[in-house]
Amino acid sequence: MKYYFTLAILLQFFLSSYAQRIDLSGIWRFAIDKEEVGITSQWYLQTLKDQVKLPGSMLTNGKGDPVNIQTPWTGTLSDMAFFEQDKYERYRKEDNIKVPFWLQPDKYYTGVAWYQRDIDIPETWKDKVIRLFFERCHWESRVWIDGVEVGMRNALSAPQEYDLTDYLKPGKHRISVRVDNKVRDIDPGENSHSISDHTQGNWNGIAGAMYLEAKSRIFYEHVDVYPSLADRKLTLKLNVHNGEAKKKKVDLIFHLEGTEVIEQHTMQPGDNKLELVLPLPESVAYWDEFHPNLYTLKYALRANKKELDSRQLTFGCRDWSVKEGKLQLNGHPAFMRGTLHCAAFPLTGYPATDKAEWLREFRICKEYGINHIRFHSWCPPEAAFEAADELGLYCQVECSSWPNQSSSIGEGKPVDAFLLAEAGHIVKAYGNHPSFCMLAHGNEPRGKNHKEYLADFVSYWKAHDVRRLYTSSAGWPNLPENEFLSDSEPRIQHWGEGLGSIINSKAPSTAYDWSSYTSKFSQPFISHEIGQWCVYPNFREMKKYTGVYHPKNFEIFQESLIENGLRALADSFLIASGKLQTLCYKADIEAALRTPGFGGFQLLGLNDFPGQGTALVGTLDAFWEEKGYVTAEEYRRFCNSIVPLARMPRLIFENNEKFAAQVEVANYKEELLQPDIQWTVKDKQGNVVKQGAFSVARLPIGNCLKIGDIQFHLNHVTQACQLNLEVSVGGYCNDWDFWVYPAQKEAFDDSDILLTDCLDEATLKHLNKGGKALLSLKKGTLAKEFGGDIAIGFSSIFWNTSWTEGQAPHTLGLLCNPEHPALALFPTDFYSNYQWWDAMSHSGSIQIGKLSKDIQPIVRVIDDWFTNRSLALLFEVKVGSGKLLVSGIDFHQDMDKRQSARQLLYSLKRYMQSASFCPEISMDTEMINSLISKK
Predict the structure, then answer these.
(1) pLDDT higher than threshold 60 for residue 317
(2) Of 719, 741, 763, which closes a domain?
(3) I need a surface site. Which of 287, 361, 494, 666 has the fewest CB within 10 A?
(4) Among candidate residues 582, 609, 635, the one where a domain is terminated
């Protein structure tokens, strides 16, 4: 026992020579200071009565005020209908508060709270420098030691540190921390993801590591590494602090890859800033997504043969540049396949500070082909960068700000200086990480002089730290100072564009790109927040919310679905809308990959955004988990380092035409020599229709790499069919559906079927005789009360109808039974694909729920989850002795130009002539005619 006791004494003595820590996590005394009297009443001298556990927040500790209708949320409430519409009245009751804007906590508090505990400083800390470290404090902190105030810190996205050397002597002390999370003079923007209830929530507390640290009087205050593999050198920018009253001669010792370098310097009292250059060993290689090579620099301080300080940092070597308007990494073109991380942490509210969670999320991103993460208006903790370093992810960080709505920049407000300081805090804390590749001021700014302010911001950082690329802000403005442009123009749906977007107004194609716009600029583009395609809620996800937030928004949507008698369709709505969502994301991503010299894209997003009215835009849910309609392997076919692409001007054909596709590849992995390139056209049963191969000697790194053309006549296709073109380049595969219909259809007698746009006298007479009619409503004639005000397009909903104030489209695609005999000659799956583009673009969505609860549509339209109406494109009823097929699809106008419409109409008529056409639900003519607008 004596032997081990001696070792313990020796270990304690050894540690006393180096930095030592006292962990401050655990139980703290606590008090809410709602009236803000704590300072004047000297709470720092009193013993607070309540208790909380830190790290944590008031919310994780169950503190705050119960949520009610007057809760002072932090974030724009765009959907004022919650406060006005009768259908939401029950959710405004004190015993049933539910908001549809975001995830909802049980309690809420913005303002001042106090945290307090006693600490015992050991004798071994005598004559040491003592620092207090809070990894993530939200938001402004003020610290008292015993009765003396130490200072204030307000970094949002970096650690807050205090020098307590002059306040802590060996013995017992009381530390009191006043935390204020209320937005006051400094307003980064109420929707900034650093503070807003739309995502992490405006929490009050301290998260992550929290400790006191004792250091020798002479120590490394900070070390920045600037590796240059091209020059085989590692430049170190050091700040060595000498806390003694006189100068001191010290040895600076560096260990890297088995090599030791010792330099002797004399340190003056205070801060000593030095720049040293070390050689990079031959074993050091580049860091990137494919080879995340990391190296550890160990460094120490020694004086009179005594070790004063000893530390280490991890770094990677990578060189960013822009050459001929293209993004370059380590000397070759690079492409950012990005998604946003919007600081949504449903279980805790505050950001995760453990590396395991970040490794989990980032591994999932890489499984889906993502190599780039944009942190929208916030910066993650250290663990995120460590995980990104290890996995090879490129991070864009922003300075805690979305200065719009409630705020602005460039006008001399306190937020201007705050954001400049915030950038400094972020770069100091995380600047050595190779994954920290890009820095932007924030998101979508406004302000009278915001361009001048941001030009200065970019110019400053370009001159002061060359380790990453800089841009003014996400979204805009496109300034000459920017090293890359973050611009929302290159995407298939824009804010406010509605049904005028490419995917909704142009016939299906895979031939377009953004070169007509990007060619106007000299900088590379990373397109801003592409996608934003919604999917129906996954109500099975609700059970996952076991933490501080509850999916009350989902509860509202689910209750609406049940009340409309559609509960059994929830899963089907999810999967069918998810298939359409995936198609939309594929279109967006491939357009970016087809654009010459493009720098990349940033999805909004790979996972759901829980706020802003509930934006279910994710292939993954808010927990970064699959929803069940697309796998990572399927997603990587069009989102990967190597993606085969086919430019097809059309996807709908008749069999008297030729199929044509230009095949190319986007290759952002490595040069490919004589790659195996195959193409195959198959039908739905997997039968090969056509196939071939291309011979290419070399595929360099880049995009728009032409491989060859595919062209063949379709006269061998005799039946309506859905075909699939698959292209494989070196084992990387991608595919596209297209459709072929007979130009000359098999004749049949349809003389007893009336095609009409209303139940006029002649049609009613025909029906009363037992005849058949197809009521096809002309586009725009559907009565408002039966769905005429529902904007229906091909694509899914963009972002959500709440936050966009009802931007079209208002629906989430189709749900049908592909085996229904009405669709026997119109090949389809159970969800929307491009063969339905024409029908959706020439239709109205009929509210059949207002006609009858018993009607089962042949083709159903999936409604917005805010309204959950029972909608249909096609349904059938009995009218008197006759049979009526009702179509929200217009089969009257421009039919000579609409190949899909002609084939669908043909399939419907053949069905109506069969024994299968036997409607069971009767409906009177007055009800049917009420579908048509009186106007």
Answers:
(1) yes
(2) 741
(3) 494
(4) 635
